[in-house]
Design a protein that fits this description.
By secondary structure, this protein is mainly β. Helix content is 0%, strand content 54%.
């Protein structure tokens, strides 16, 4: 029933921008904290950004000042605006519901972001 679908990934040159979307069905996101994660080749999945129901955000040090997480509750969707992209941002990006205490739930399939030099 619950489904998260990531989209918006692609191939972009260093310094370029992409906007990722995470559309949810079977769950209402308005009261949820949402997170974006990424997994690069040979690395563990890492938390990139979170946004609470009230709009408070947190970012990994590696993306601060370049990425912005946002949400549109009317569309039941969360976004990740990625600017000034670097090759090291290359990864599969996933969104997830961040449940207090128990952690992330309801992973999507992910969307590939490739940044060329």
């Amino acid at each position: 029933q619950v489904q998260l679908v990531e989209s918006g990934g692609g191939l972009v040159q260093s310094g370029g921008s992409l906007r990722l979307s995470c559309a949810a069905s079977g769950i209402t996101l308005s009261t949820k904290t949402m997170g974006w994660y990424r997994q690069a080749p040979g690395k563990q999945r890492e938390l990139v950004a979170t946004i609470t129901n009230a709009g408070s955000t947190n970012y990994a040090d590696s993306v601060k000042g370049r990425f912005a997480i946002s949400r549109d509750n009317a569309k039941n969707t969360v976004y990740l605006q990625m600017n000034s992209l670097k090759p090291e941002d290359t990864a599969v990006y996933y969104c997830s519901v961040q449940v207090p205490v128990v952690g992330p739930r309801f992973w999507g399939q992910g969307t590939q972001v490739t940044v060329s030099s």
